[in-house]
Design a protein that fits this description.
The complex is a heterotrimer of chains A (about 350), B (about 200) and C (about 220).
Chain A: H1 2-23, H2 28-48, H3 51-73, H4 81-91, H5 99-113, H6 127-138, H7 140-144, H8 174-179, H9 190-195, H10 207-219, H11 225-244, H12 253-258, H13 262-269, H14 280-300, H15 307-315, H16 318-338
Helix pairs in contact in A: 2-4, 2-10, 3-4, 3-5, 4-6, 5-6, 6-15, 10-13, 11-13, 11-14, 14-15, 14-16
Chain B: H1 5-49, H2 60-70, E1 71-75, E2 80-85, E3 91-100, E4 105-113, E5 119-126, H3 140-144, H4 176-196
Antiparallel strand pairs in B: 1-2, 2-3, 3-4, 4-5
Helix pairs in contact in B: 1-2
Chain C: H1 2-15, H2 26-31, H3 36-59, H4 69-91, H5 93-99, H6 110-118, H7 125-155, E1 157-158, E2 161-162, H8 172-175, H9 178-201
Antiparallel strand pairs in C: 1-2
Helix pairs in contact in C: 1-7, 3-4, 3-6, 3-7, 4-5, 4-6, 6-7, 7-9
Classes of the chains: A mainly alpha (about 350), B alpha+beta (about 200), C mainly alpha (about 220).
Chain lengths: ~350, ~200, ~220
Amino acid sequence: MAAQIQKKMRMENGTLLSILKAFLRKQPMMRRVLVSLMPILIFSVYSFGWRVLSLLALVTAAGVTTEYFFEKSRKGKPTDSILVTCFLYTLILPVTIPYWIAAAGVIFAVVFGKQVFGGFARNVFNPAILGRVFVFITFPAAMTNSWTQPFTGFPGGFVRWVPELTDGISSATPLAAAAQGNSLNSLPTHLQLLLGNTSGSMGEISAVLILLAGIYLIVKKTASWKIISSVLAGVLGMEAIFYFSGISRFPDPLYAILSGGVLFGAVFMATDPITAPSTDPGKWLFGFLVGIVAVFIREFSLFPEGMMFAILIMNSFVPLLDIAVKSVKANAAKRRVAA
Amino acid sequence: MKDKAWFNLVFMLICTALFTGILSGFYVYSRPQISANARLNEITAQLNALNIVIPAGMSSTDLELYYEQHIVVKNMNGFDVYQYETNDGSIYYAIPFEGAGLWGDITGIIALDQELKTVVGMDFVSQNETPGLGGRIQEDWFKEQFRGITLYSDGDLIRYAAAGSEGQVDAITGATATSSAVIDILNESIKQAKTRIGGDN
Amino acid sequence: MASQYREIAKKTLWSDNPVIKQILGICSALAVTNLVSNTLVMGIGVALVTAFSSLTVSALRNIIPIRVRMMVQTLIIAFYVIIVDIILRAYYPDMSRALGPYVGLIITNCIIMGRCEAFAQANKPLLSFYDGFMSGMGYTLILTIIAVVRELMGFGTILGFRILGDWWTPWTIMVMAPSAFFVLASIIWVANSLTVSKEKAAGQSISRGVQTSGN
């Protein structure tokens, strides 16, 4: 078993990538995103066992094959962005998800989220989130009853395959627990959320690692700090308003940021250069609105998490935001000339 | 003549009068059938909720008579309640409920005992939940779960049995939203019924 | 004469199909196609309304003033739609509840108005009736294909009979309206690539024509 896993691991990091390099269009920005995801991936294996990597391998294989098939027909080459999509998509799934569901989700994401729009750089929606939402809506049972507590201590998940689901009873994620109004002492603490000692999707549980990745991406000018900070400000501000009016589900606004997919979404999803606005005012507005919409969905809808819906909803307004910003600027310039 | 404005007008008027006339006639002709269907739906739900067995093969007029033999409408503090008295004198109430589901309003009937402490049963009159998911609340296994359950005395009167907590009924897997909407509506209307019917409870 | 009928059948069912070629009637294609039984009733409803509306419009075509013809057509269509609605509510209450507001929305189905305006205005009543009915059948055909895919994947059944066993995990999204977008889009994709390659083979220039969209 262990040998098999090691082989898979080597495949993933060595051979597979070098094979992929041979026929993938290189995109340095996307490479940096992959680098920033590595610590999160390793922590994910520590928390949830080696099944994480087997899922990632399958998703990547399915995603790249689908992309290759479509790109071939229009005589293009798959790009590195497909790897980013596959990594991000895998990391926002629960570890216990059946393999075929994970594969169906990524194929859907590539075909209907990316290729029907004309492939790389033409897609309106973030494909990784689209795949996640598709899986979430299509197989609700697999996505809501399969959360497990992570492994802790040494060697944690490094010697295990996958956490056991005890009698199919799922352990509620912090978000689901908050949505059901569980008493505060059954919720994980801030520290647990920060370190990642809680149930959740494979890559979203450790706030510290996501923040570190975010800082790395900002320093390397890969992710827009404007979008990240405005999303977080939007969530914090809206959550603070609800908190002080006494209708919030969360113990405090900071808790709302640390739990669920807010950080992961803000750092990796909202900043996707293709589906985010290109103008600066557009970025600020986009970020704030993502945060605000996410909070509204979390607090008032029947879904515990609003981040993925918020990003998709705002994705569809991106062209409008950019056009609005440009026309406002053009009008202002015209007025200056006239004056 | 056909180009004249007055002809257009007169033609439209005649057409409208003709078609709406036929339509009204047809509507009046089938209206009794339509309202009978709605009524049938309503009283079947009440009888089901009260656990009164409907003999098979009843025509709608027979069913109406059957219904009137069993149930009287009582107005309690401006609130219609359908009361059923058994031969041994015990009294049960059927109470209409209404509230927002996931896609639209859910309406139905819940029947309680006189003390308002146990549920006799419940049935839905209308719902627009997703077929095959939330729409499964209409299935018998879900509705039958409510028969004879004892209400909790504080907090939520009816609860779903979830991992690690006790409850009286099971939710529908994969349709959390509809399931919790149903239970919220039921709890809310039982609480209202308690204040309206039995002020002393 | 017979060839005229055959031509209409070929056009409405495939080469000029109202749903996949003219992109008409999409609204109801999304709404009612999660169960095959609902789809068939809706399809028959649309076919009958289209057929009788076309018949009536064609019979009155020589006396309807040209300026108010659209109003008269709308009136005639509304008349038949309400009749279908009343029949369903009175005699098929279960079906009426399942189809909900969509029966009333048959009136917004562009296929009906399209056939009245494009065909019935200029043709004899019987032929118009046939054209309207066949257009409704073309609509039903495509919707039934969508419904078979959706019911099979969403419930594992067709017309309520279990086809796929317990091993099948139902795809919830197939039960919800958005999936009709994907399924319909895929059908149009397949149909277009079939006709385009045929046109290429015949050495003709590829003209897709102007596609009108509507409800």
